[in-house]
Design a protein that fits this description.
By secondary structure, this protein is α/β, with parallel strands linked by helices. The protein contains 43 helices and 19 strands. The protein is 49% helix and 8% strand.
Length: 947
């Protein structure tokens, strides 16, 4: 017998020639068998295929143990390679063909399992016993009945094709040296996503980014979000342990849906996950848009996967082993009728493509097969057809750091970029969307490179971007410079010179982006581009993604902007260099923000604009981009595209100041509209303009807006320029958290009525608010902190702050976690306070000693009204009755664990109070409130399956 080590060394060149063109399966399986370390494996993926396999073979030959493992892996992955290798495996990898170290005694069930192909095709490799778990799965596999001899070659070809197509992720690359950021293998760059259960609540009128931001604010605080690996989308769930057959995964553009699908396909193709499926068919709705005539599912698959054509009949003999992945339902141009009665459709029946997709998703076609669809939130796909629905929420902070580390090879640069993102609210909130993370990192690459500072200054002549507009402009500039103009410019080429070289292309592309945005059009044919003077051959590698594969005999190209926000930014850039007069700018803002059609204008963006007035909300990100690009133009940063006259630089900010004044002074603004105007002012970032506007903002009502840290930053940026007090700032139920409140901190002392109810605030927030109340400039009269977890330590700080405060007249601390300890210094502090007239602390477990202290305080401060029991105040009881009714009607609130806890606190407070008051109107209202809460909690429990 020959040792495995000697065999591999003697046959090294032969093995290298057979595997070097397709190393992915071999390398991945060697890593999973611990033959290659994780670090070594990832480093090999960055090398050429030939060098990667050569170095792997050198590692394998180092010991007899690793050589034996290599032969085992070679058996498992042989079907990915040529027939000659398979013959070699059959000859040399039998159990008796090589000597092995004496193994430790093992149980039969612990022996190695076959690979995915080997398990499917019996008899291919012998002498290896399956584990008990794998055996159990194999017994359940429908694929056992499939004629393996007919499909073996077809499945192998399918997997090889998938690996070639899914092995790389698009990424920014500058140069070809080791220092470039060109590592793009999916194993290197993929970062796990977070998802949560879908509650099917979506506001279709809202820009999808803002809707997601508001959902995240609630979801991340109140729900236990689980990180999901794509391969677990079809895993069993719930107490029944049933495996879902139909799964919907939704999320906004750029959140990672398609990349997650790509990862899933890669894992299946390489044989590492979802091995219960014999075949996975991935279909993109963008491609299905090309199908105009009725056809059968068999015909569709035979055209899309030609190497599977002969195997399809055998595959469909066991439909339970098939998985269909349908990516991008929102991009499907055909209408879908979900309510039509089901009719029998088989795989050979010709039907319209829209009818086929509905039948496949609903399960009237191939009910035994599994289906995963991805879609954006605004597209209807009724939940009743799916056993599992997910919302993709992108990254959390730890994933942002992981992604940044993977993007930049230099760990020092990665750390600096991550810190910059972390310390910039605008960038930090953007970064939870994976594609934004990519855009931010690409933009930052110009500023955090290892090049010397002098060269960096010449490159962009800008500081690192701070606002969203600046990030996108840097991203666009980087794309132009390093892709469109590759070879025509160098790092030191001035920005104005670079922009002048692509002025016409950017103008044409921006016009296409703008006019399509008004029509909500995101997919384009070549003819669409050509009508705007855009040549796909010149631009697709820079600005557009070539997003379609040939589906029929002829090649049909479709295009899309890299991301919806890239389209919005280019549209804004076009408008910023096309609207010259101040009147045109004002008319444009009236049009975009309020739907007022321009009276008369010769400016191209305002001539016969086609806009659905019901979709104004979808232009909010665009208007922010426009203000940022207008600022860049006035600052001379768009030189090369346009030049601003001196008088325009001086007069435009004043003209805009008057316009913004008018909006806040003369109109009753909707919540989102008011917030958008604040963001526009922050993106414009002109002190003179903001000083004119800020004093006109007397109240800011953003109740239940689910605000992000960037929203708080926008409020702070504008209001810091106002010398006057703010009559009311209402950010109740906005989930701003400690970070958001900290961002608002410098303006809180000027808020006469400050509503901070249910904002996920804790002791840290109480410390911040205490500092506000101690300030000599404090103007706060009413402070609402209900429903926050301030705790006893936080409340003790508030009592200290109120000891010498002379402005606060009303303080509401219902359900804030006050305990008996939280009342220790209340008598000493509040007995010295002279301004406080009303204090409510219901829904807190202050104990007997706490109630005793309150009675003592009442005697010392007869002018202070203290409401510690629900039954003490009829108005308070009615307010809580209204609140419970509001929660009943609003699933968005009821899904909140925080509110469930709050309801329990109210219930406990009612029960304690009920022991003291048994009759009267108050007692009647208290009983009604108790009954309503019990019913609400019961219905919520029933709705969630007893959880």
């Amino acid at each position: 017998m020959t040792s495995a080590q000697h065999l591999i060394r003697s046959q090294r060149d032969l093995l290298l020639s057979w595997t070097r063109d397709h190393p992915a399966p071999l390398l991945r399986w060697l890593q999973d068998e611990k033959v290659l370390s994780s670090t070594h494996y990832l480093s090999l993926l960055e090398k050429s295929s030939s060098n990667a396999v050569a170095q792997a073979l050198d590692t394998v030959c180092a010991t007899e143990e690793s050589s034996v493992k290599f032969l085992q892996v070679l058996k498992d992955v042989q079907d990915y390679y040529c027939k000659d290798l398979q013959v070699w495996v059959e000859r040399h990898c039998r159990n008796d063909s090589v000597s092995k170290p004496a193994p430790a005694p093992v149980r039969v069930e612990e022996k190695k399992s076959k690979g995915p192909i080997g398990k499917l095709f019996k008899g291919k490799t012998k002498g290896f016993t399956l584990t008990t778990d794998v055996k159990a799965k194999e017994d359940l596999k429908p694929s056992r009945s499939i004629k393996a001899v007919n499909i073996q070659a077809s499945i192998s070809a399918h997997k090889k094709t998938l690996l070639q197509r899914t092995g790389q992720l698009k990424c920014y690359a500058e140069g070809e040296q080791a220092t470039s950021n060109s590592a793009s293998h999916i194993e290197i760059r993929y970062t796990d996503l977070f998802v949560t259960e879908d509650d099917e609540i979506v506001d279709n009128n809202q820009h999808e980014y803002f809707d997601l931001a508001s959902r995240r604010a609630r979801i991340y605080v109140h729900q236990a979000c689980q990180r999901i690996k794509p391969c677990n989308l079809l895993s069993s769930q719930g107490p029944t342990g049933r495996t879902p057959k139909r799964v919907k995964m939704k999320g906004i553009a750029g959140i990672g849906k398609s990349v997650a699908v790509q990862r899933l396909l890669y894992e299946w193709a390489i044989g590492k996950n979802m091995r219960e499926f014999t075949c996975v068919f991935d279909l993109r709705f963008r491609e299905l848009n090309l199908i105009e005539e009725p056809l059968s599912l068999l015909e569709l698959l035979a055209e899309r996967f030609r190497y599977l054509k002969t195997a399809l009949p055998d595959l469909f003999s066991s439909p339970g082993s098939l998985l269909f992945i349908l990516d991008g339902l929102d991009e499907f141009k055909f209408s879908l009728d979900w309510n039509t009665p089901d009719k029998h459709i088989d795989i050979g029946m010709k039907v319209p493509i829209s009818e086929m997709m509905v039948a496949l998703i609903k399960g009237s076609l191939l009910p035994e097969a599994s289906v995963i669809i991805t879609t954006r939130p605004s597209t209807e796909a009724p939940k009743r057809f799916f056993q599992k629905c997910c919302v993709v929420l992108g990254f959390e902070e730890v994933q942002v750091k992981e992604y940044t580390t993977k993007f930049f090879k230099d760990s020092e640069i990665a750390g600096r970029v991550y810190e910059y993102i972390l310390n910039n609210d605008s960038l930090f909130v953007l970064s939870f969307i994976p594609l934004y993370c990519y855009i931010i990192c690409t933009a930052m690459a110009e500023f955090f490179s290892s090049e010397n500072k002098e060269e960096k200054d010449k490159s962009l002549e800008l500081n690192p971007p701070r606002t969203v507009s600046e990030v996108y402009f840097c991203y666009l500039f980087t794309a132009v410079k390093h892709h469109a103009l590759r070879g025509a410019t160098e790092r030191s080429t001035p920005r104005s010179e670079v922009l002048s070289l692509v002025k016409q292309e950017l103008t044409n592309l921006g016009k296409l982006a703008y006019e399509s945005l008004l029509q909500k059009k995101i997919i384009f044919k070549s003819s669409d581009l050509e009508s705007y003077g855009v040549t796909p051959a010149d631009l697709q590698s820079t600005f557009l993604c070539h997003i379609l594969q040939p589906l029929k005999e002829e090649t049909v190209e479709m295009f899309s902007f890299f991301h919806l926000t890239v389209q919005e930014h280019l549209a804004a850039l076009y408008c910023a260099v096309s609207l010259f007069s101040q009147d045109d700018i004002i008319q444009a803002l009236d049009f975009w923000c309020f739907g007022q059609h321009p009276a008369s204008s010769t400016a191209a963006p305002l001539r016969n604009p086609d806009l659905n007035m019901d979709k104004l909300e979808s232009l909010q990100m665009f208007t922010r981009f426009f203000m940022g690009m207008l600022r860049a133009r006035l600052a001379g940063q768009l030189e090369g595209l346009v030049q601003s006259p001196v008088e325009e630089v001086e007069e435009t900010p004043i003209k805009l100041g008057f316009w913004f004044q008018e909006q806040f002074k003369g109109k009753k603004l909707e919540n989102q509209t008011a917030l958008n105007l604040l963001h526009c002012l922050m993106e414009f970032h002109n002190k003179e303009t903001t000083i004119m506007v800020a004093p006109e903002i007397k109240t800011l009502y953003l109740f239940k807006m689910k605000l992000s840290v960037v929203d708080c930053a926008a409020m702070h940026y504008v209001l810091q320029f106002s010398p006057h007090k703010l009559q009311e700032l209402n950010v109740g139920y906005s989930n701003i958290g400690n970070r958001g409140l900290t961002r608002l901190g410098p303006i809180l002392h000027r808020c006469e009525s400050l509503y901070l109810r249910y904002n996920c605030l804790d002791r840290q927030a109480a410390l911040l608010e205490s500092a506000v109340l101690k300030s000599n400039e404090c103007q706060v009269k009413k402070l609402f902190m209900c429903g926050n977890n301030l705790g006893p330590e936080g409340v003790l700080e508030l009592w200290k702050a109120l000891e010498h405060n002379t402005t606060v007249e009303e303080l509401y601390l219902d359900i804030t976690g006050i305990t008996e300890r939280g009342t220790e210094n209340i008598v000493n502090c509040l007995s010295k306070n002279t301004s406080l007239k009303t204090l409510t602390i219901v829904g807190n477990d202050i104990g007997k000693e706490g109630r005793k202290r309150l009675r003592e305080l009442e005697q010392l401060r007869p002018g202070l009204r203290i409401i510690a029991n629900f039954v003490d105040d009829l108005g308070l009881l009615q307010a809580y009755l209204d609140w419970v009714e509001e929660i009943r009607a609003d699933r968005d609130q009821m899904d909140s664990v925080k509110n469930a806890d709050a309801l329990q606190s109210v219930l406990k407070g009612l029960q304690v109070a009920g022991e003291q008051v048994e009759k009267g109107e108050n007692a009647k209202k208290a009983k009604e409130l108790e009954t309503n809460i019990l019913n609400l909690l019961k219905s919520h429990t029933d709705l969630n399956g007893g959880r």
